[in-house]
Amino acid sequence: MKPLRPWLLAALVVLIYALHQDFWNWDRIEPLICGFLPIGLAYHAAYSLLAAALMWVLVRWAWPTQLDQLEKSEARRPEEKDHNA
Questions:
Q1: Which residue among 28, 53, 57, 81 is least packed, with the fewest CB closer than 10 Å?
Q2: What is the mean predicted confidence (pLDDT) over 43-59?
Q3: For 2-36, what is each residue's pLDDT tens digit?
Q4: Is the model more confident about 75 or about 61?
Q5: Contact present, 20 and 47 (Cβ < 8 Å)
Q6: CA angle 16, 40, 25 (to 5 degrees)
Q7: With contact defined as beta carbons under 8 Å apart, do 12 and 57 qualify?
Q8: Residue 17 has what pLDDT?
């Protein structure tokens, strides 16, 4: 399953991007969600939550761990100070 993971994550990013283009709600105000929230605004609120969940998934599964290891190894080195300055 590991080789499939980058393709699946990329497909999710493309899907979420495509969902952002909600052309079907451009000219609609009705129905009002909870009696006051236009459908387009409610859609974008739900979309924002979905995008935040996708970012969590990307950080959890696609974060390059070598960056964290590099940062830890640099933090262990003593700082080299130029005493001639």
A1: 81
A2: 94
A3: 666 888 999 999 999 999 988 887 888 888 888 89
A4: 61
A5: yes
A6: 85
A7: yes
A8: 93
Instruction: Tell me how crowded residue 25 is: count the other CB atoms within 10 A of its CB.
Output: 14
3-state SS record for 17-78 = HHHHCCHHHCCCCCCCECCCECHHHHHHHHHHHHHHHHHHHHHHHHCCHHHHHHHHHHHHCC
* Spatial CB neighbours of 12, under 8 Å, sequence gap ≥ 6: 54, 57
The 3-state DSSP class for residue 79 equals coil
Region 35-62: mean pLDDT is 91
**pLDDT of 72 over the 70 cut:** no
Q: How far apart are CA 82 and CA 15, in angstroms?
A: 52
Per-residue model confidence (pLDDT) at position 18? 93
The tally of CA atoms less than 13 A away on the side-chain side of residue 79 is 3
Q: Which residues pair with 37 in a beta bridge?
A: 33
